[in-house]
Amino acid sequence: MSWLVTGGAGYIGSHVVKALLDAGTDPVVVDDLSSGHREFVPDGVPFVETNLLDTDTVTATLKEHDVTGVIHLAGYKYAGESVKRPLHTYTQNVTAMVHLLEAMAATGVDKIVFSSSAATFGTPDVDLVTEDTPTAPESPYGESKLIGERLLADVATAGAVAGNVDEAGAPVPVLRHTSLRYFNVVGSGSPDLYDTSPHNLFPLVIDALRAGRTPRINGTDYATPDGTCVRDYVHVADLAVSHVAAARALEAGTPLQPVYNLGSGDGVSVRQIMDAMARVTGIDFTPEIAPRRPGDPARIVATGEAAARDLDWVMRHSLDDMVASAWEARQAHPS
């Protein structure tokens, strides 16, 4: 028996694969390599290069590898870019998820951990976001993640309806699921794995320093202690551990909430990140100051108390640890 990791050749997905292996669970990876990297998948781990829109291939993969559950990370994950590409975003994040759920239903796979996003909250008017904070996404990306959560709830409800059967007359199994919401995932759990996103803050800063350019801060006049935006920044290895804990809980039949926030509880400012980058790398620099970006809220920080209780969620890494591991992994890949 094994667990399928969609997007398992990506930055977060590859860390989840590593965490599954460390926990003694066999992973199977499906990834179309649109943003993932084949070399991120360890030798010996089954890998299928396909998009989730290819229902037949995904169904065959679930059958061939006796998959019992899915950790679903595949998708188009850029909130700002999703505003420019709404149709692409909804196709990759919503339509593809429908196809995945169809493949799961066809093969009797009834457990799924969904990689959602704190983008579902939009710009909350509270200092600390909880699972009960109202959702109000402000981008197609955030909307697509919220729709994904609702899809899971609706499919689970359908399975719970007495007498509900599929086209062949077989009972529809009750889907067991949970969704994990988080913001900025950083750092590295292995020198072989690193963030290659062209939009995320850590790789942008690190690549600028490696190229001899000066990193930039967008806006220093926010209502925060140092004037820069405050966000949750969580280490990717810590995040991966909680994905595996969620999978194991579903497998054991342990009751879980439908949604968990993987938050730091206090947040880090962009200025603090720049200071940590200079301190850890030994490269002294003064960030360039650019205007605010439209739609950037001053502060979004979530509590992780429920996840700490149920999903082994712990902030095991300091900000300097996050920077040091990201820097080391990127330095190991000069190209």
From TrEMBL:
Lineage, opening ranks: Bacteria, Bacillati, Actinomycetota, Actinomycetes, Micrococcales
Record-annotated NAD-dependent epimerase/dehydratase domain positions: 3-263
Gene Ontology molecular function, alphabetical: UDP-glucose 4-epimerase activity
PANTHER family recorded: UDP-ARABINOSE 4-EPIMERASE 1, UDP-GLUCOSE 4-EPIMERASE
Annotated InterPro entries: Epimerase_deHydtase (IPR001509), NAD(P)-bd_dom_sf (IPR036291), UDP_G4E (IPR005886)
Alphabetically ordered keywords of this record: Carbohydrate metabolism, Isomerase, NAD
Reaction(s) the record says it catalyses: UDP-alpha-D-glucose = UDP-alpha-D-galactose
Pathway involvement of the protein, from the record: Carbohydrate metabolism; galactose metabolism
Electron transport is among the record's keywords: no
Enzyme Commission number(s) from the entry: 5.1.3.2
Name this polypeptide is given: UDP-glucose 4-epimerase
Pfam families: Epimerase
Similarity-based family: Belongs to the NAD(P)-dependent epimerase/dehydratase family.
GO process annotations (BP): galactose catabolic process via UDP-galactose, Leloir pathway
Known cofactor(s): NAD(+)
Enzyme class: isomerase
Organism expressing this protein natively: Luteimicrobium subarcticum
NCBIfam families, per database record: galE
